[in-house]
Amino acid sequence: MQLLKDKIIKEGKVLSPTVLKVDTFLNHQIDPLLMKEIGHEFATRFTNEVITKVLTIESSGIAPATMLGLEIGAPVVFARKRKSLTLSDNLFTASVHSFTKNVTSDIAVSRDFLHADDNIIIIDDFLANGEAVKGLLHIAEQAGANVVGVGIVIEKGFQDGGKNLRAQGVRVESLAIVNELEEGKVTFAEEEAE
Ligand code: G4P
Ligand code: NA
Ligand code: NA
Fold this sequence. Notes:
- This protein is an alpha/beta fold.
- The chain has a single domain (2-188), classed as Rossmann fold, CATH 3.40.50.2020.
- Helix content is 28%, strand content 34%.
- Helix 2 crosses helix 3 (62-72).
- The N and C termini lie close together (6 Å).
- Residues 19-22, 27, 59-60, 98-101, 125-132, 156, 161 line the site of guanosine-5',3'-tetraphosphate.
């Protein structure tokens, strides 16, 4: 998605060879017009699917997920993160380990909001090692719901999340795939579909 790549080039800050900071439009301040276009782009890429629910994880997945939900007229559910879950039998839960932050958190979604007849799309801001998406897939599986695919705003192609998910047969659509973050410069994957 050219608009997104231009924004990353213009405003993204390469913090290290593995971390891209995009606080000006995605992770702290949000650019609503860009988010609207992102929602439209996800809807276009998954236009052949009937989607009944958009599933994401707090906090940075909520903005792009909501814009997709608005575009396709589907509710948006976000998994909540907890340090430790208080026991409840009304929750679907999964354990998500972040290699980047070296913490494991429990994520949870109420059983009231996902059902066996749902066709779910999973949305997130970043795809690195894929642990957050794996947790959301596990939650969808507990609900007995169908997952039509995964939509990612920025995939880090040099980490294994996208490769592993695609190898499992999961459809992953990333709007920008960053191949390299060397010497302060962002390089995108050539093969990314437009
Ligand atoms: P994974 O789910 O793909 O395995 O990713 P990882 O554990 O590495 O990610 C942990 C957190 O760091 C996630 O945010 C993820 O979005 C974010 N993240 C990973 N790589 C980058 C990066 O290069 N740049 C930025 N800006 N963020 C990155 P989170 O802790 O869930 O926070 P939130 O922003 O959603 O609240
Ligand atoms: Na996220
Ligand atoms: Na994030």
